[in-house]
């Protein structure tokens, strides 16, 4: 039986992906801060699944928590880091900027670091990180955009490192556009996909061991536009 851990499985994309992986025969280790939601989801998953409360911002405890979950599961083949947060507030309150950086940068790197070392020691594995289209260019939520640029670049760095070891370790970067979860904030949302559809597309990317996917695929067009649009147009959007 394949084994996967999902960091941030209490809601949204992580929760739906846990269900899809469970339906495809995975034993899942689910994590997040909200224990009642972990318990609810745990009851829906395969009996071999486990849960562990982890707050990724408390990095030392989170690292120990993830290590102990992996040990309890007898090793894992797949780690998905879906935990993330973001805010749109024109006042840019420091507490919100900091929280975004704590979760999306420090928390993400701490969890990716544990997964990296586990897979290198095991000699195989698959790490999936959820970045965002927002990684491509700074915008309305500066800390969020910058934090997702960190996620994308960190995953790229880990992929570079494992490719030089010639180990069968895959690193997949997921770049969603808008997905209809609590995270999808702000006005003028478009091409919003459901978390269920996002989870199915992420599962396909895992199955095919892709390096990178846009969720949904047409967000590749927006990514292209964001990369090449001149500032005098972009800054008016
Ligand atoms: N929705 C979108 O439009 C969209 C677009 C692009 C990228 N993304 C990315 O997709 C990922 C999943 O987001 P979502 O849309 O599914 O939103 P969501 O429903 O709000 O899920 C966020 C998940 O992150 C977890 N989390 C947040 N802070 C945490 C912390 N300090 N420690 C541990 N877990 C924490 C939450 O669990 P607890 O609260 O229980 O801890 C929850 O399970 C995020 O990385 C997000 O940036 C989303």
Structural overview:
- This protein is α/β, with parallel strands linked by helices and 237 residues long.
- It contains 8 helices and 7 strands, in the order βαβαβαβαβαβαβαα.
- The protein starts with a strand and ends with a helix.
- The relative contact order is 0.13.
- Bound molecules: NADP nicotinamide-adenine-dinucleotide phosphate (NAP).
- The site of NADP nicotinamide-adenine-dinucleotide phosphate (NAP) has 31 residues, from helix 1 and helix 4.
Keywords:
binds NADP nicotinamide-adenine-dinucleotide phosphate, alpha/beta, globular, 7-stranded parallel sheet, 7 strands, 237 residues
Global mean pLDDT: 97
Query: How many DSSP-defined strands?
Result: 7
Distance between the termini: 48 Å
Give the strand order, joined by hyphens, for the main sheet: 3-2-1-4-5-6-7
Q: Give a short account of the largest sheet.
A: 7 strands, parallel
Give the SSE order as H and E letters.
Answer: EHEHEHEHEHEHEHH
Helices, by number, come to 8
Q: Which regions are unreliable across 5 or more consecutive residues at pLDDT < 50?
A: none
Describe the oligomeric state of these chains in a short phrase.
single chain
Q: What hetero molecules are in the model?
A: NADP nicotinamide-adenine-dinucleotide phosphate
Helix content class: 40-55%
**Molecular shape:** globular
Taking all Cα atoms into account, the compactness measure Rg is: 17 Å
Structural class: alpha/beta
| Percent strand | 15-25%
């Amino acid at each position: 039986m394949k084994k996967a851990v999902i960091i941030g499985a209490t809601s949204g994309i992580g929760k739906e992906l846990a269900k899809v992986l469970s339906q495809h025969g995975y034993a899942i280790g689910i994590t997040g801060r909200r224990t009642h939601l972990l318990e609810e989801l745990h009851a829906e998953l395969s009996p071999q699944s486990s849960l562990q409360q982890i707050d990724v911002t408390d990095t030392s405890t989170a690292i120990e928590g993830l290590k102990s979950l992996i040990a309890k599961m007898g090793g894992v083949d797949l780690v998905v880091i879906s935990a993330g947060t973001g805010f749109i507030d024109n006042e840019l309150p420091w507490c919100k900027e900091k929280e975004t950086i704590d979760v999306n940068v420090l928390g993400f790197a701490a969890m990716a670091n544990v997964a990296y070392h586990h897979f290198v020691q095991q000699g195989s594995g698959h790490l999936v990180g959820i970045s965002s289209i927002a990684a491509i260019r700074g915008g309305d939520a500066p800390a969020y955009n910058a934090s997702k640029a960190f996620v994308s670049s960190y995953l790229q760095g880990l992929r570079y490192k494992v490719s030089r070891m010639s180990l069968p370790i895959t690193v997949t970067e997921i770049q969603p556009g808008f997905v209809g979860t609590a995270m999808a904030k702000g006005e003028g949302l478009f091409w919003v996909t459901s978390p269920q559809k996002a989870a199915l597309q992420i599962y396909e990317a895992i199955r095919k061991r892709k390096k990178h996917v846009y969720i949904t695929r047409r967000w590749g067009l927006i990514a292209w536009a964001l990369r090449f649009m001149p500032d005098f147009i972009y800054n008016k959007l």
